[in-house]
Write the structure tokens for this entry.
Amino acid sequence: MKLLFATHNRHKVEEVLQILAHTDVQLVTLADTGFTEDPPETSDTFEGNALQKARWVYERTGQLCVADDSGLEVDALGGRPGVHSKRYSPEALPGPNNQLLLSELAGIEDRVARFRCVIAVVGAGVERTAEGRCEGRIAHALQGDGGFGYDPLFLADETPGRSLAELSMDDKNAISHRGRAFRKLPDLLEGLL
Ligand code: IMP
């Protein structure tokens, strides 16, 4: 049996396929199943949203599903944008999101931040979750053009001076919140596939 990944975000799909490449887990994406609707995410926690997305797709397909919810928490902003990372700016696009972040942090010394990713597996009578985090700080200007979202502004503690957008996908996956969460997936699937 294959596991259905409940996302339409092609960047996430690319990263997760690479993270799981050397495991037994075989992923099918929503696009593969012809599903076009976006699962809802109305919770105020990463865990709540990951479960909501996975439950929603499981209820409509009957297939064992994994979903993730992720975002950026900035300490000086009291943890914002957090679960609202995708729609932080009115435009809800990476460029405006990054510019808004830079302007909110203008003149602020404390740039400590982290990415968080919670994954949820939902199937018949089963709900399991796991989390991964990536600690770092917010740069003063955009750096690099790889990755997606806030990558050009995020300097992970493990790669000081270099943003996630300046790393290869393998190097990002080795330290990222998503890499750390999805590497727990084989254990989470114990007894299910
Ligand atoms: P969601 O998990 O689909 O709700 O999206 C979370 C949002 O957080 C994304 O749209 C990005 O803005 C941001 N985000 C999550 N993971 C990453 C990442 O690995 N790099 C950069 N931005 C990310």
User: Anything to note?
Assistant: The two ends are 6 Å apart (CA to CA).
